[in-house]
Amino acid sequence: MTITLNDRTPPRPALRARIAGWMRGPTFGRDIVIVLAIKFALLVALKYAFFNHPQAENMSMPPALVAQALLSAPASHPSQGDQHAR
């Protein structure tokens, strides 16, 4: 007894036909891709608008001073006991 398997899967449609079908049909995946593309564009626009350059050329600090200001903990004041209860 011989078993033959005929692989008769239809060929995949061309890329152009797949893109056209994706654009026509209301799919959740397409909506997610569109929303993510819009968010990415807005984030890039915000980065270029606010974070690319300092507001003034003379507003620069040495990196060591910035790191010290960001990473150092403020000195805490010693408590005087239960001040809130008096």
Strand count: 0
Run of helices and strands: HHH
Largest sheet: none
From the N-terminal CA to the C-terminal CA, the straight-line distance is 98 Å
Oligomeric category? single chain
Name the overall outline. Answer: elongated
What's the helix count? 3
Report the helical percentage.
40-55%
* Uncertain residue segments: none
- What is the residue-averaged pLDDT? 77
Strand content: under 5%
- Kindly provide the radius of gyration, computed on alpha-carbon positions and rounded to a whole number of angstroms: 31 Å
Protein topology:
Blueprint (H helix, E strand, L loop, with lengths): L14 H10 L3 H24 L11 H9 L15
Written description of the protein model:
The protein has 86 residues and is mainly alpha-helical. Helices cover 50% and strands 0% of the residues. The protein has 3 helices and no strands. It has helices spanning 15-24, 28-51, 63-71. The radius of gyration is 31 Å and the shape is elongated. The mean pLDDT is 77.
